[in-house]
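Internal tracking record. Fields below are filled automatically when a chain is submitted to the structure queue. Please do not edit lines marked as system-generated. If the sequence contains nonstandard residues, flag them in the REMARKS field before resubmitting.
Queue: standard
Priority: normal
Entity type: single polypeptide chain
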Amino acid sequence: MVKKIALFNHKGGVSKTTTTFNLGWMLATKGYRVILVDTDPQCNLTGMALKKATEEDEDRIEEIYNTRSNIKTGLTAAFESQPRAIEPVDCIPIGEQERLFLLPGNVGFAEYEVTLGIAQELSGSIQALKNLPGAITYLLDKKASKFNADYILIDMSPSLGAINQNLLMKRHIFRFSR
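SYSTEM-GENERATED OUTPUT FOLLOWS
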């Protein structure tokens, strides 16, 4: 079973992203398969992992935001009430480290914060919102299975919002319903 490690601090600028990346790199060096997950809308882990240094690199990262290979598009089915199951989106291999993969962030992922907060409060009474509180963990579990990952390292934003609350919960129940 995959081990999930979420790096959180309520203050920004305390090296959560750098620690996530370096821990992932070292675990991969030790032979573990690791998925880095960028849930911070600033997407610094995505930029670091994909070595954003030039305008050309920036264009490549922008291309990733416009594909299904990021955290927001991976959760679209649940958060936008689409009648389909969440599928694991592709991970991006990280350069020269063959066991290290990235689930890129997306600036638009922050748009789901309010929806998830409402779902956490009302999920017992509104059928359409029941799937949301477990959707993030469900996606990560599906990705771990698809990529045979040993670890998932989650770089979190410095907030106590619904997304981070959801990421820090021990267990999630996901019931896909149409």
